[in-house]
Specification:
heterodimer; A: mainly beta; six-stranded mixed beta sheet; five-stranded antiparallel beta sheet; 0% helix; globular; B: 113 residues; mainly beta; seven-stranded mixed beta sheet
Amino acid sequence: RKEVEQDPGPFNVPEGATVAFNCTYSNSASQSFFWYRQDCRKEPKLLMSVYSSGNEDGRFTAQLNRASQYISLLIRDSKLSDSATYLCVVKPFNAGGTSYGKLTFGQGTILTVHP
Amino acid sequence: DTAVSQTPKYLVTQMGNDKSIKCEQNLGHDTMYWYKQDSKKFLKIMFSYNNKELIINETVPNRFSPKSPDKAHLNLHINSLELGDSAVYFCASSPGTKADTQYFGPGTRLTVL
């Protein structure tokens, strides 16, 4: 089983649509959770962290369910500029109790927003 | 102002050659990383250095050797290149190992022929 698994996608949605991405992780001791965004042929960039209580940043809402080891990202009122690959990212603990900064990435979900 | 820079951006070479990729960050960060993104788009960590000390060394062939001359630089040398080494290599940095955000360089697209 992959450490981080995401919806396979791709998602093709019209402008203004609401779209949701899901992600599951296998390490129950994982420490921190994020969504990164990667544009075509560019580097990944942090979109938002994901907190246990859920958090929102403008049109983006992230949820975390530790019991189910499940993370989600909701994008409302999609814009053309939202077209990108969305990467679910987990920061696990290692055996010593620290993660040394290691991030584990899902394979990403491609989103295309069309006019 | 480029925060994390990598050179070269593109690298095309023959099997069996030795090549290096350089990375520099001007953010004053203590921790730097090398990631590999393969053709299936999976990003996997290879190495991490904290204040010039190796702290993460994933299962990577020993043909790959990172070097950190100072905490602002982390270079990656690859010996005896193989076809399977073709990928995009990303350097990243963070303020420390506990910091959540990592800042990625633009990537080096390596093609081995």
